[in-house]
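Look at one record.

>
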Amino acid sequence: MSRPTPRLFLIRHGETEWSLNGRHTGRTDIPLTARGEEDIKEKAARLVGDGKIVDPKNLCTVFVSPRQRAHKTFHILFEGIETPHHLLTEECREWDYGDYEGLLSSEIKEKNPTWKIWNDGCPGGESVEEMEARVDRIIAKVREYHRQYFEEGLHTRDVMIVAHGHFSRVFISRWINFPLCLGTHFNVEPAGMAILSYNHNSLKEPALNALNLYATVR
């Protein structure tokens, strides 16, 4: 009998004031709104716990962005239950927007009318190539856990990442072996969960199982 297919749970942090009004929030360390915290608590009650979609006993590890909006989301998700092994890592931070940090898309367009992050990256921040390489490194780490599960009998099968919007859109694109720019076609809502896994129990067939699970679209 085959073992269950391993999964990656990819979670965007909850609402912040800047995500609410559309400002590009990379390295700026701002908190969740009160509504953002409540959204996460609601998701946790439905998704996290013994026998639920995210069962802590099935988690190998959790990678968490060091920005407070992400690690606060992580701690709310596991509030009242045993916190799984987790690692704060800059590899899961948001795209570094550089000179465009804190700006609305309309304000960026005033500076550079043809700008598209998917093609141009961010002056003073991360290029497309740098962002793609960073995401590919964390994907390789996730895949190594899953390889150990398939090939070495690792008893826990799932991994979680708690991160950000553009990071998640890039991650989904790269997970399914597409160029980073495919991320323009994915909406990743605050407090939403994507589930990434594999077809036919094969590491060579990465797949997207779910997107924006239980997210509130405003």
